[in-house]
Predict the structure.
Amino acid sequence: MARIIDGHDKNMIGERVRELRLKRGLSQQKLSDRLEVLAIYICRGSISRIEEKQRTVTDIELYGLSQVLGVPIESFYETPEDNV
């Protein structure tokens, strides 16, 4: 049986996470710290791997990222064409 994620990328949102994090002036460590306040533990190294699409993201982590970055979950999946 084929795996759900069978290619090189392990998530679809990594680039958008990086974009939003930088737009808000947050370091990877600061993002990790803010997630920890919500009891969502993603270390700085894991944030890096998410942004590089080398790590999967759970639904709870996605929720936390949306809360800390101040965007609805759907916005992680927007493409540049969606903003036109």
Remarks:
- The radius of gyration is 13 Å.
- The CA atoms of residues 11 and 57 lie 7 Å apart.
- The helical segments are 14-23, 28-37, 44-51, 59-69.
- DSSP finds four helices and no strands in the chain.
